[in-house]
Design goal:
The complex is a heterodimer. In chain A, strands 6-7-8-3-9-10 form a six-stranded mixed sheet, with helices on both faces. In chain A, strands 13-12-11-14-20 form a five-stranded antiparallel sheet, with no helix packed on it. The radius of gyration of chain A is 25 Å and the shape is globular. Chain A has eight helices and 20 strands. Chain B is built from 13 helices and two strands. In chain B, strand 1 and strand 2 form a beta hairpin. The chains are: A alpha+beta, B mainly alpha. The interface between A and B is medium-sized, with 30 and 22 residues. Bound molecules: adenosine-5'-triphosphate (ATP) and magnesium ion. Magnesium ion (MG) binds next to helix 1 of chain A.
């Protein structure tokens, strides 16, 4: 059965640029990557997102050719890569540890791959200069890797991987070692470079914000399996699995049962909330079915007065965390559950006249279309 | 008093002891003996016991031993033989030891333990016993010698037929046994060096288009130079001064320098001459080393400053 989520995004070529089909990797009896299939289009920035040890690096190494799949096939640019060794693949990788050659200067590191290109010495030097320029490392060309900073090393690694103009660039946690500012800056640089070069990027990360900012599409992995593939919006707003919903961002979720389906909406009985809640129905829902209803903190409204409409919940503020542009409220329901509610601080207010304060009785509400229903 | 002493020890004494222990060791077991030998080399041979003396009719500083060092070709030939044999032995140790050390880093950890044990195992039997074993193997009537003879005779024309292979009492035998004996001293530092290298670097080079042999040449080999130098020193220096192996299997007509020193001390009872030969050997070995490390550190310093913008 073709899963809509795993199908290629906009299919153009007969074979997509990268196709991973039924790929499994076992280490002994341990399944590091378990029957993974998906496609990547040319020019995409595709992110692999998941917790530590979920198989991201292993999957990437199979694309690069360092690890042979136990089962399954990888196609790159229409070619079956199964028996192609790493040195013959049009794929370059930027390593999690950068893996710069410690005995070579920055310049030599960047130019290393060019030795295998049919170029004259002058052309090679030009290309290295161009790369140095791109990552703004020209003044450091003659230094050894141990004589430059971590962020500079990371840029050398990027330049080295880009120098031969690969068709596919694999980046394993490219920004993990950088501080927040440099990281944001480099994210833009990466997107910029991708834009200019048109190279397809596959980026591994366990930073969800990074994945959402960078990528055109992303895959969420857990225990070696793909949980969901989609654009940032799809993954965040329309998660298909409980794991995805809770892994990306934070979420309030309640177990309940479907009591009634009326048109596009379903009525869900939720013991924790007392009254039934309305939510936009999903396909294949039947009355009596157990279901999880999930609402993101920013989709809940909070106020002292009871709002009109459906899905109203009463509670008491148990804690407020002030972040400047928004605040996070922890609201305890009469049943004992505590919900997170995030509200933008749209109006300037002192500590005592904000939307809600400690121990205040408040009303929460959410639109039926903002509720996520999850069955698995 | 004892309280103050232990107080001092607790405050600074232990640190000082640990820092100074190697120096004390060097002074007691290297510097003082060396100064004695150096002094002896300027003495005059006498028939007293010990058989050397200063002053008297002879000058305090007698340079005669050093003059003989340069005038008698025996000594120069002995140095050349020693250095020649040591160089050949070092090169062969490297050629044999490098692949073994590299192999050790590439096998599973259980195999690695077993193979490392096998590298060290020969040390558990007496060194002399192992040399005698080689003497037995190389002797004209051994199965080993007969096997080599038969192979030679089978492969070459009849005119070249030989009765046995002459191995004993040749420089070949000296080099062979030295390579065998010193191989672990090459393998172990090389292994320690190669094992530290990051396998991701090999992968990076391969990822950038280099085939395995190229990866070795570009990435592994340059990074293992410190290991090669360490192993080379550990083999070359003792091989230069080797006494037992050339005495037992070597060619008596072209002795190595260790043999010469030993003979001067014992059979000729010429301690000043023996000391002069020993001092010259030390200079021959240590001076190139010091020059090398001086240039190495200067080159590094130059590179570091040149790299700065
Ligand atoms: N060579 C190996 N032998 C045995 N197990 C391995 C090997 N390489 C990886 N694994 C296991 O496979 C699983 C996936 O590893 P992988 O490196 O792909 O994780 P990851 O998703 O990249 O994690 P991280 O975010 O921490 O880098 C881990 O549980 C790891 O222990
Ligand atoms: Mg990883």
């Amino acid at each position: 059965m073709p899963d809509a989520a795993l199908a290629p995004a906009p299919a153009q070529t007969p074979l997509p640029f990268v196709r991973i089909q039924g790929v499994t990797k076992n280490f002994g009896t341990f399944k590091a990557v378990d029957d993974v299939s998906f496609d990547i289009q040319k020019g995409e920035i595709f992110s692999l997102l998941g917790g530590s040890g979920c198989g991201k690096t292993t999957l990437l190494r199979m694309l690069a050719g360092f690890e042979e799949p136990t089962a399954g096939t990888v196609w790159i640019d229409g070619q079956d890569m199964t028996s192609v060794p790493a040195y013959d693949r049009p794929v370059h990788m930027m390593f999690q540890s950068y893996a710069l050659f410690p005995h070579m200067t920055v310049e030599k590191n960047i130019g290393y791959g060019l030795k295998h290109e049919p170029m004259t010495k002058a052309q090679r030097a030009d290309r290295v200069r161009e790369m140095l320029d791109l990552v703004q490392l020209t003044p450091f060309a003659a230094r050894k890797p141990h004589q430059i900073s971590g962020g500079q090393r990371q840029r050398v690694a990027l330049a080295r991987a880009l120098a031969r103009a690969p068709k596919l660039l694999l980046l394993d946690e490219p920004l993990a070692a950088l501080d927040k500012k440099l990281r944001e800056h480099t994210q833009f640089e990466l997107m910029n470079i991708q834009d200019r070069t048109g190279i397809t990027f596959v980026v591994v990360t366990h930073d969800q914000e990074e994945a959402m900012t960078l990528s055109s599409r992303l895959a969420v992995m857990d225990k070696g399996r793909i949980m969901q593939i989609g654009t940032s919006t799809e993954i965040y707003e329309y998660p298909k699995k409980k794991f995805v919903a809770s892994f990306i961002g934070s979420i309030n979720s309640f177990d309940g049962t479907v009591s009634q389906i009326t048109g596009p909406e379903a009525l869900i009985d939720i013991p924790d909330l007392g009254s039934p809640m309305r939510a936009t129905a999903i396909a294949g829902l039947a009355p009596g079915q157990p279901v999880t209803l999930a609402v993101r903190p920013e989709k809940l409204s909070i106020g002292r007065d009871r709002p009109e409409g459906a899905n109203v919940i009463r509670g008491q503020v148990e804690g407020v965390a002030y972040f400047g542009k928004d605040s996070l409220y922890r609201v305890r329901l009469p049943g004992g559950r505590v919900l997170s509610v995030s509200a933008v601080n749209a109006r300037r207010a002192g500590e005592h006249d904000r939307v809600a304060d400690w121990d205040d009785e408040v009303w929460l509400a959410f639109a039926p279309s903002s509720a996520i229903l999850l069955t698995e | 008093m004892t309280a103050r002493l232990s107080d001092w020890f607790n405050k600074r004494g232990w640190a000082a002891l640990i820092i100074w222990l190697p120096y004390i060791w060097l002074v007691v077991f290297f510097l003082i003996p060396f100064v004695i030998v150096l002094g002896m080399s300027f003495a005059t041979r006498t028939s007293t016991a010990p058989p050397f003396g200063f002053g008297g009719e002879d000058p305090i500083l007698n340079l005669e031993s050093y003059q003989r060092l340069f005038s008698d070709t025996l000594y120069i030939r002995a140095y050349l033989t020693s250095v020649g044999n040591a160089v050949v032995a070092t090169v062969f140790c490297l050629l044999i030891g490098y692949p073994m050390a590299l192999g050790l880093t590439r096998v599973s950890s259980t195999w690695r333990t077993i193979l490392l044990m096998l590298v060290i195992l020969p040390f558990w039997t007496s060194f002399l016993l192992r040399v005698y074993a080689w003497m037995g193997l190389m002797g004209t009537n051994s199965w080993f010698n007969r096997l080599l003879t038969d192979i030679w005779n089978a492969l070459t024309p009849e005119a070249w037929e030989i009765a046995h292979v002459t191995m004993m009492n040749t420089n070949f035998a000296v080099v062979l046994v030295m390579v065998y004996s010193y191989l672990p001293f090459m393998i172990l530092p090389l292994y320690a060096n190669l094992e530290r290298l990051d396998p991701a670097l090999d992968e990076a080079a391969m990822d950038l288009g280099s085939r395995p042999l190229r990866v070795f040449w570009d990435v592994t080999l340059p990074q293992s130079i410190p290991g090669i130098i360490a192993g080379g020193m550990l083999v070359f220096i003792p091989a230069c001064g080797e006494l037992i192996i050339p005495s037992l299997v070597g060619d008596a007509s072209s002795p190595m320098i260790g043999r010469v020193i030993s003979d001067e001390f014992t059979s000729s009872r010429d301690w000043p001459m023996a000391s002069a030969v020993a001092v010259a050997l030390l200079v021959l070995l240590v001076v190139p080393l010091m020059v090398y490390s001086y240039f190495e550190s200067r080159a590094n310093a130059v590179k570091a400053t040149k790299g700065a913008p």
